């Protein structure tokens, strides 16, 4: 994966370069101290991953993302953890590294970026993992990685995608064994969500597109771990 660094602090640049060099699948092709310097490069070159500081001398990293046409996977880096929740409102951000971060934490962010980058390839080759649901005597084909969330109410399960809501008799427990662990996490006794569609978290509420989903106290840590927080 081709990557660039946009970071104005030299020590932070050195740490990122050192970590990148340890991962054979990463190729550093650019290193910039300011957003304006990187702008022309990103608009002419095909880049897979950008390591982007939030506090830059010319504009904030979050504002800069909005100026990039077809932005690559973004891994934010900053010393301020309070930006973490707001940064996830931008779909292109795959992870958030709070300085100083370890190599293990860096590697976890890279793995999340790989997952995001590889999803279009799987879809283009028509190799999605699918399941058929028998609802009202009709078989509905569902692509698992396109499920937004699954809700349980009494003896019924509702499977929600961007285009469908399908309800039938089943248990949430049975769905935990059907779903890809890399994407899905249970956040409440009644909800399993697809972490790829998380737009933001506010208190004990998680937002999947325009849907508000409660976060159960006993499930919050596993959710934060899934999101790399």
From TrEMBL:
Q: From what superkingdom does this record's organism come?
A: Bacteria
Stored Pfam families? LytTR, Response_reg
Modified positions (4-aspartylphosphate) are: 53
GO molecular function per UniProt: DNA binding; phosphorelay response regulator activity
Every HTH LytTR-type domain range? 131-229
- Which segments constitute the Response regulatory domain? 2-114
Signal sequence span is none
Keywords of the record: Phosphoprotein
**Sorted alphabetically, which PANTHER family does this protein's record hold?**
STAGE 0 SPORULATION PROTEIN A HOMOLOG (PTHR37299:SF1), TRANSCRIPTIONAL REGULATOR-RELATED (PTHR37299)
By what name is this protein known?
Two component transcriptional regulator, LytTR family
Originating organism: Algibacter luteus
């Amino acid at each position: 994966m081709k990557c660039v660094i946009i970071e104005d602090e030299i020590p932070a640049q050195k740490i990122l370069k050192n970590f990148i060099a340890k991962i054979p699948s990463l190729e550093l092709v650019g290193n910039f101290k300011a957003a304006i310097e990187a702008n022309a490069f990103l608009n002419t070159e095909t880049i897979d991953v950008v390591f982007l500081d939030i506090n830059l001398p010319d504009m904030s990293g979050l504002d800069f993302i909005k100026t990039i046409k077809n932005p690559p996977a973004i891994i934010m880096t900053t010393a301020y953890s309070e930006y973490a929740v707001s940064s996830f409102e931008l779909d292109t951000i795959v992870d958030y590294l709070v300085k100083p971060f370890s190599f293990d934490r860096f590697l976890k962010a890279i793995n999340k970026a790989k997952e995001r980058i590889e999803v279009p390839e799987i879809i283009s080759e028509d190799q999605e993992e699918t399941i058929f649901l028998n609802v009202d005597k009709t078989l509905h084909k569902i692509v698992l990685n396109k499920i937004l969330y699954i809700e349980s109410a009494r003896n019924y399960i509702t499977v929600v995608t961007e285009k469908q809501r399908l309800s039938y008799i089943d248990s949430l427990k049975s769905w935990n064994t059907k779903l890809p662990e890399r994407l899905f996490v249970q956040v409440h006794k009644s909800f399993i969500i697809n972490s790829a569609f998380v737009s933001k978290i506010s208190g004990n509420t998680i937002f999947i597109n325009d849907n508000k989903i409660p976060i159960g106290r006993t499930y919050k840590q596993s959710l934060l771990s899934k999101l790399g927080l």
